Amino acid sequence: xxxxxxxxxxxxxxxxxxxxxxxxxxxxxxxxxxxxxxxxxxxxxxxxxxxxxxxxxxxxxxxxxxxxxxxxxxxxxxxxxxxxxxxxxxxxxxxxxxxxxxxxxxxxxxxxxxxxxxxxxxxxxxxxxxxxxxxxxxxxxxxxxxxxxxxxxxxxxxxxxxxxxxxxxxxxxxxxxxxxxxxxxxxxxxxxxxxxxxxxxxxxxxxxxxxxxxxxxxxxxxxxxxxxxxxxxxxxxxxxxxxxxxxxxxxx
Length: 252
Known about the structure:
This protein has 9 helices and 10 strands.
């Protein structure tokens, strides 16, 4: 398909800038990503910090994949603080990719790649398997059906290496939220943890390739992961506490 036709199929986002931040939007009512101008690599939105909570469960991932680039908040965080991890980011919207320099997303190199493509097709073809797969693929009309189907979640599980973890961002108020969680539970045999982001907007779902994960998880998980520096770890301590609370609630 010609690039011009591909571009026409996708909504063009816009950038809103204040004195302290820059954000990516499809509409003013929904913020896709937000960046602090004085510190572009900081995770500025709470849900992104909760998603990075996968480091509690898999502190030394060699291979990370992300479906959805947005303003690149999590991609930049992983690139800066997880220096031994290779990172592939799959983004379907060429207009979003075109804004990568606006949001200080690093250029492609030997351990970081932004791939223009369909996330559902990417996991279905499974050219590579990953330790961590993050799904944050919202578009202008919300969560696309291709990124929340039973088949998609099944493919996500097959994309994970042994011991791997899937992290999915869902809108807690979505009318099909419970159905999406039920599909994840079906795929992962209930090895699933639902964590509210603390702002009552997003629910982050962690799902494990290992079915006995909850036999190993302990509520007192708030600690510094082994491969991350103090600057990166300090950003996540509040999110780690939220996740630890969710584990306690699940074990009751």
